[in-house]
Amino acid sequence: MKYAVVGGGIAGLAAAYDLARGGDEVVVHEASEVVGGKLQTELFAGTQLDAAADAFLARRPEAVQLCEELGLRAELESPAVGSSYIWSRGALRPVPKGQVLGVPTDFTALRASGVLSTLGVLRAALEPWLPGKPLGADATVGDVIRRRYGGETAARLVDPLIGGINAGHTDRLSIDAVAPQIAAAARRDRSLTRALRTSPAPAPGPVFFTLPGGMARLVDALVASITAHGGEVRTGAPVASLDALDADGVVLAVPAYAAAPLLESVAPGPAATLAAIDYSSVTLVAFAYPDDAIDRSLDASGFLVPRPEGLLMTACSWSSTKWAHLAAPGRFVLRVSAGRIGDERAAGLSDEALVAQLRDELALTMGVRGEPLEIAVHRWPRAFPQYAPGHLARMAEVRAALPPGLALAGALLGGVGIPACIGTGRSAAARLRGEESAPSR
Ligand SMILES: Cc1cc2nc3c(=O)[nH]c(=O)nc-3n(C[C@H](O)[C@H](O)[C@H](O)COP(=O)(O)OP(=O)(O)OC[C@H]3O[C@@H](n4cnc5c(N)ncnc54)[C@H](O)[C@@H]3O)c2cc1C
Fold it and tell me: What domain range is 175 assigned to?
């Protein structure tokens, strides 16, 4: 069989990896000059630094399993620190103990953290006593959290965490797609606090892994395996029409707005559904500073910024503290994010203006002063699909309506994380080979 994979991001490469190893002919068509999509690594401040994704969840099996197969398992590194902060009410405050994706379960710790006002804590602490019904159909995360815990918890804790992962707004994101563990708890009990307190504790072990050398290590290892099995990875090869592909089966592993026009003539219904998916844009700016540019200790993985604070930055990762392999004497490295759905300010600024404003905000939040040693700006337009309520059901319908020989993969299906994207790539390969496994997302 001859297969074509459109899109050389992690999902497309994972699909091609399985197809090539199965002994079939496979060609990956990647539009840009480099493979990897949002997995890009470059030399910065004397180290290999990721320009977008820099870690993956260790508690989902797909990425760890793939690294195992590729001989990278022994290299996986977990964060050197476990704590982080939230910039809230004018100070960096610890993320309260006991929270699950920002949803509080320990109101004493919530109060001690100072993230919310006293009234905000009192409103949240009423949750176990509030009347109500367990969650029914899919809803937005914001609806569920605001109703149970009030607006402050929604805006200052849950939106920075769950909205942050998706560069979205919890008032628009499907709870089933972006927080399935919270959705499951909300369906078990009218009180979400009670349900979360009695949920089984996650397995011990690291929550995240990275690869020293960056995510490009994973991309390079996949490309090496695909080519070693006779497959081909073409760059600078945009696909404008499925008719142009000489293949018995095609995996479409591109963003929804790129998949839609390709599907229009063969599957107009799915094409219209995909075209309606909104995307948010983000910008990531890396800074290296000399050690004497700051007085405070960098004792956490970084901090998140809730929308009501009004800052341009949405998060700041203390990268050289978080990952041991990025540490070096004499300097520290920060990765500052800006941009989320409904906030296009960063996209509208020149690099110079963007950097100037982020430097002001680093001074405000962390007391960073003086000149950076190095700066790198990475813009990721239309990078994060926004899963509106009902997204998972719509994607199931889209998949079911595709003609045989065509499969979809990637973040558009319902999970932005690297493990989810790998899972969709591998199940797309299985679908084309007629070994349909349970659909992944
Ligand atoms: C700044 C940032 C930080 C992130 N951090 C993390 C993180 O720490 N952990 C994590 O798990 N996830 C993270 N993510 C999310 C994750 O990186 C992505 O969701 C995931 O990599 C998407 O993979 P994909 O294969 O679905 O799509 P992509 O990586 O977008 O790949 C799709 C590819 O298709 C190509 N393409 C598009 N149209 C065509 C066409 N017509 N023909 C041929 N090729 C085409 C594109 O050029 C692209 O290379 C982050 C994302 C961003 C932007």
Answer: 94-197
Tell me the CATH number at 164: 1.10.3110.10
302 lines ligand 1 (CB under 6 A): no
283 SS3 class: strand
* pLDDT for residue 441 is more than 90: no
Q: Which atom belonging to ligand 1 lies closest to the Cα atom of 32?
A: 47
Of all atoms in ligand 1, which is nearest to the CA of residue 410? Answer: 26
Q: Give yes or no: residues 222 and 344 share one domain.
A: no
Same domain? For 271 and 406 the reply is yes
Structural tokens at position 45: 């401040």
Ligand 1 contact, 335 CB (< 6 A) = no
Write phi, then psi, for 24 (nearest 5 degrees): -90, 160
407 shares a domain with 375: no
Q: Look at residue 52 and tell me if it is in a domain.
A: no
Please tell me whether residues 190 and 99 are part of one structural domain: yes
- The total number of structural domains in the chain stands at 3
pLDDT in tens, 317-330: 999 999 999 999 99
Residues 230 and 355 in one domain: no
Query: Cβ–Cβ contacts within 10 Å for residue 353, how many?
Result: 12
| Strand 302-304 to 85-88 pairing | parallel
Continuous segment of H or E residues that includes residue 95? none
Range 24-53 average pLDDT: 98
Is position 53 within any domain? Answer: no
The DSSP secondary-structure symbol of 297 reads -
Report residue 420 as tokens.
Answer: 């989810």
Based on the domain organization, do 232 and 159 belong to the same domain?
no
Query: Which residues share a beta bridge with 103?
Result: 100
Residue with CA nearest ligand 1 atom 13: 53
Distance 285 CA to ligand 1 centre (A): 18
What is the CATH number for 302?
3.90.660.20
CA 396 to chain centre: 21
Residue among 254, 263, 335, 424 whose CB has most ligand 1 atoms within 8 A, to mutate:
254
pLDDT digits (tens, 9 = 90+) for 240-291: 999 999 999 999 999 999 999 999 999 999 999 999 999 999 999 999 999 9
